[in-house]
Amino acid sequence: MKLYNSLSRTLEDFAPLEPGHVRMYNCGPTVYNDQHIGNYRTFAFADTLRRWLEYKGLRVTQVINITDVGHLTQEHLDSGEDKVMVKARELGWTAEQVAGHFMERYFQDRRILFFQEPAHWTRATRYVPEMIALVKRLLEKGAAYAVGGNVYFDVARFPGYGKLSGNSLETLKAGARIEINPEKRNPADFALWKTDAKHLMQWDAPWGRGFPGWHIECSAMSMKHLGETFDLHTGGEDNIFPHHECEIAQSEAATGKPFVKVWLHARHLLWDGEKISKSKGNVVLVQQLLDKGYSPAEIRYVLVSTRYRQQVNFSWDLFDGARPALRKLAGFKARLAEAAAKTDGGKAPDLEAVRAEFEARMDDDLDVAGALGVMHGFAGQGNAALEGGLAGKGARETLALLDRFDGVFALLGGGEERPPDEVLRLGGERVAARKAKDWKAADAAREGIQALGWAVEDTKDGIKYRRL
Ligand SMILES: [Zn+2]
After folding, report:
1. Using CA atoms, how far apart are residues 467 and 263, in angstroms rounded to an integer?
2. Which of 258, 259, 250 is closest to 141 using CA atoms?
3. How confident is the model at residue 453 (pLDDT cuts 50, 70, 90)?
4. How far is the CA of 250 from the centre of ligand 1 (A)?
5. How far is the centre of ligand 1, averaged over its atoms, from the C-alpha of 125 (Å)?
6. Which of 7, 318, 425, 441 is deepest in the core (most CB within 10 A)?
7. Residues of the domain holding 457
């Protein structure tokens, strides 16, 4: 299997450090707002990567972090305010409430989109002792220095600084137009610990009461669960610098060992040709897509259907296109399931050839578009075979292979489709009206639901929904 390593800037053959076991860390969300569809494309890439490794029979220990402290509004300058704190002030909530709220929204979106649960969720505020221990270690090694209650990493003491991003200390120095922090020995030095009497979240540390820097969080949390050297570390392309560059510097300076074998970065997507940003007004959330009537599987289809390091342009049209594509695959699966129950007959497609082609596509740096193309070709061949009388054992084997492929994409078996909120609200009204024997109101609610493209069925277990 080949993966594109951002560190070596080449496609590399991948083999885990420990045979049969892959240790992977995915940089997760900073929980100060809702994650948008572009963020989910990066998370979907990590989910697909794990599913593919598991398809290949590897055990995967996956860690995803939740950043709830230390991510600053001007991270590239290592300054500004804590994003969670800014939000807390805006909403009049506590920092804990902000983090809890957006974390729950993130978990809910993940469930809707059928993402797998990692072995560990690492929430930064719950790992402060580990971070303090790592900062101590860096101070002892002379790779960091404390001044005025703050601790900085001394980039000049780590010769490998810049190896991931390609930034040299010279270019960074030349680019440092902003007012230079007089505490820093070098403008590229970055904070491991900050003291700030106004910060809502503070912990005692030997060099002052304060909070950890965003970069040290990921180093401390990943090494805690995955060891000092592990296989894969993923993130969005904007994480390369400064976040991941700094993670490498501080981890390797502390341990003297290589931190991560393969760095993988998802390219950011565009929406209608533009970068997704609040100022452009094109921040699309999962909930908005559901409200527009796209099913979780349709959203997922779009998220998983282009290779992670390819620039991709999203638009509503792209989501519209997912429906017929999915319908074709789902129709194939339904016909196979029907034929599987019948007596043996007909001839199955060459399953071995289809399987080999699918695996070759995925092994080629997760060529998901190619692999989905193989699935569509398989549906074409399989449908022809069904028309030629394929049934029984051959249909069961064909279905088993389709299910196996779907384990990688989770598009065809992933639970029931969740109707949009408006349908659920009307459903609630219908239940209440029926209870009150207000048949007119109950009928009105049903008609409202139908107008939104859904059918309802009243069962003894409650209301059931089906897309019309
Ligand atoms: Zn991180």
Report:
1. 41
2. 250
3. confident
4. 13
5. 14
6. 7
7. 421-467
